[in-house]
Every structure is written in C-alpha cells, then in structure tokens.
Amino acid sequence: MPMVGFGVFKVTDKEECQQSVLSAIRSGYRLIDTAAVYGNEDAVGVAVREAIATGLCTREELFITSKLWVQDMANYDLAKAGIESSLKKSGLDYFDLYLLHQAMGDYFSAWRALEDAYEAGKLKAIGVSNFYAHVLANFCETVRITPMVNQVELHPYFAQPASLETMKHYNVQPEAWAPLGGGRHKPYENEMLQRIADAHQKTIAQVVLRWNVQRGVTVIPKSTRQERIEENFAIWDFSLTDNEMAQINTLDLGYVGEAVKHFNPEFVRGCLGVKIHD
After folding, report:
1. Which annotated residues bind substrate (predicted)?
2. d(Cα 53, Cα 247) in Å, to the nearest integer?
3. How confident is the model at residue 257, as a pLDDT?
4. Is 278 a domain residue?
5. Which of 38, 107, 118, 132 is catalytic?
6. Residue 75 is assigned to a structural domain of this protein
7. In sequence order, what are the beta bridge partners of 49?
8. Residue 101 marked ligand-binding
9. Domain span including residue 189
C-alpha cells in the first residue's frame, strides 16, 4: 500500500475527476481513493482504464480504494449489493482496498459482506473509516477478519496519538483523510511550520504531509491543480528531525470543538439521512 495517495472527495464533475486522477498517476501517485458517496467511482474507473491503455501504468501497480456508504450498511444483503454496485460503477474487477465509510448502521453485518467479498477475491484488502479508538477496539475484538486499514482524520491539529497506539496494537494501518487540516485550521500561516519548511526548502504542505508519513500514516491529500498535485507527492527527498517532529506535535488540539464531528448526534443523523440511490 503506497504511503501517499490521491483523494477525489468533492470532485463531482466527471471530466474534472477523470483528468485529475490521470494527472495524479502521471505525477507518480498509485493510490487513488474514492467512495460510493462521492459519486465519482465511475470517473475514477475511466481514468484507471485510460492510464492502463496509454501505458502510464499497469493495473497491478495501482491501489484503488472505495468505501461502502451507510445507506448500504443496514444489513448484510444491502452491503453485498453495495459492494457489487461499486465494482460495476468503477468497471473494475476488484478493489485493492474497500472500507466501511462510517461506524454507523449495522456495521457488523456490513463487515461480514466485506469479509466474504475479500475471501472471494473481489476486495484485496478490507478496512474501516472513522472508527475511533474505543469503537475500533471493540470491533477488532469481535469480528472474524481484523480490518487492515482505518482511515481517519489525522493532521497536526488533530494528531490522535492514542488512536495510533490502538491501531498499532491491532496491526491496523492508519490512513489520513484531511492530512492538511481539512480547511478548518491555518497551517499555512504558522511561523513554526514556515521555519521548518524553509530549513528544508520545502512548502508547509510538504512538511505537514511528511510529518504524518514519518509517523507511519498513509496520507491522502486532494487537489485538482496540477502544481499542488505534484507538490503533495514530492516529499521523499527530505526527512524531519526528531526535534522538528516534536515541535509539530505541539500543535495538537486534541478532542475539542468540531474536530470530532463524528461524536455529534446531528452529524450522525445527517449521515444516516444521505441517500445515494433509491
């Protein structure tokens, strides 16, 4: 599993999504992250087939992730149908990774559908998303196949060190959505981050992404701008010192404010009300 991926959350225009994914693959990305609720699994699939057809890469070199939406997590049969729908929309024979998008609905029954699809070879790896430490621990202690990945919000302002320890305990790979702060913080105005970036002749975005990668976290930045796509991938020619890592760690705000929106009942009800099909 690559340590840097390309996300397509909120890229709803099909052509823009397709071209962004192609640009990412040309720039060296091999992990592409989509989801049923994003409404662009089809565009990602088109881009993947074009990349393969034009010789940019082989299918085996790519790592394509999608996620089952909560509407299809009410029971086993709905989850099974949701997996098949994702595969059909993408036009792919398999996903390299498939996740439960939220810890909502009957996610234990939905997980059994993922386990069966994994054993059938339709999903090469299975995991979860937005499972906080206490939920993940209970889940791992209960299910037959332990999730291989947990995709959660991870950035300097919400570092979740305790959650990382829980994932390590269960051998679950952490993966970060919103690795640059999700637009709710201002890392680009932080003087300490700028000093570290200047010391390495890098940008603040590259420093923040590198910080997570050095913690063993896979990151999924997103952009539709070519220069940002390339910038976010160019983090392999420098390393942060232990002191720099420690300085960045001081930005962590912990579980405060809107950082943990998944603990908000209104957010949960909102997710459960989002329908992606009849």
Report:
1. 101
2. 46
3. 54
4. no
5. 38
6. yes
7. none
8. yes
9. 5-273
